[in-house]
Amino acid sequence: MIAWTIVQIAVLIWAIQMLWKYYKANGGNKFGLPEPPGPYGLPVVGYMPFIGSKAHLTFVKLAQKYGDIFQVQFGTQKVVVLNSFDVIKEALNKDASFAGRPSSAAAEIFVTETTSSFTMRTGDAQWKFLRKLAIKALSMFASSRNSRLEAVIDEASEELHAELSLQWTTN
């Protein structure tokens, strides 16, 4: 009886190993295309516990390690992160290739009736409007006019710092 159980466990481990090798041999996805590099996450939750409250800084560090295009796992959902002006511009210019994402729980949280993010939307009219707006904002940011934008950001950050300092000293 014990020998039969050991054989069953060995066959199960062998089957899982063969499936894993097949999965990796096909590039890890159903199309057989290579996936972008990225950090490994934990089972079920993925990389979410390691993101922290300042996701943008975490993504900058990951971009330094993995490049401008990398992927992270949020729960069971793989998310590809584009982390440079040129890559984002290329993705926005090829809108048909990047539109029509599958619906997910994370997307439903970020896209509501009152707020929306063009990164989580499909190729509808609002997505196209937000896409054009993002392209204009990115090109303005990357152009020589960014000194004006920089001055506005500096002024806003100084005001925010003063306000937060005032709140911390009164509490």
From TrEMBL:
<keyword id="KW-0256">Endoplasmic reticulum</keyword>
<keyword id="KW-0812">Transmembrane</keyword>
<dbReference type="GO" id="GO:0005506">
    <property type="term" value="F:iron ion binding"/>
</dbReference>
<dbReference type="InterPro" id="IPR002401">
    <property type="entry name" value="Cyt_P450_E_grp-I"/>
</dbReference>
<comment type="similarity">
    <text>Belongs to the cytochrome P450 family.</text>
</comment>
<keyword id="KW-0349">Heme</keyword>
<keyword id="KW-0503">Monooxygenase</keyword>
<dbReference type="InterPro" id="IPR036396">
    <property type="entry name" value="Cyt_P450_sf"/>
</dbReference>
<dbReference type="GO" id="GO:0042446">
    <property type="term" value="P:hormone biosynthetic process"/>
</dbReference>
<keyword id="KW-0560">Oxidoreductase</keyword>
<dbReference type="GO" id="GO:0020037">
    <property type="term" value="F:heme binding"/>
</dbReference>
<dbReference type="Pfam" id="PF00067">
    <property type="entry name" value="p450"/>
</dbReference>
<feature type="transmembrane region" description="Helical">
    <location>
        <begin position="6"/>
        <end position="23"/>
    </location>
</feature>
<keyword id="KW-0479">Metal-binding</keyword>
<keyword id="KW-0472">Membrane</keyword>
<dbReference type="InterPro" id="IPR001128">
    <property type="entry name" value="Cyt_P450"/>
</dbReference>
<protein>
    <recommendedName>
        <fullName>unspecific monooxygenase</fullName>
        <ecNumber>1.14.14.1</ecNumber>
    </recommendedName>
</protein>
<dbReference type="GO" id="GO:0042448">
    <property type="term" value="P:progesterone metabolic process"/>
</dbReference>
<keyword id="KW-0492">Microsome</keyword>
<dbReference type="GO" id="GO:0004508">
    <property type="term" value="F:steroid 17-alpha-monooxygenase activity"/>
</dbReference>
<keyword id="KW-1133">Transmembrane helix</keyword>
<dbReference type="GO" id="GO:0005789">
    <property type="term" value="C:endoplasmic reticulum membrane"/>
</dbReference>
<keyword id="KW-0408">Iron</keyword>
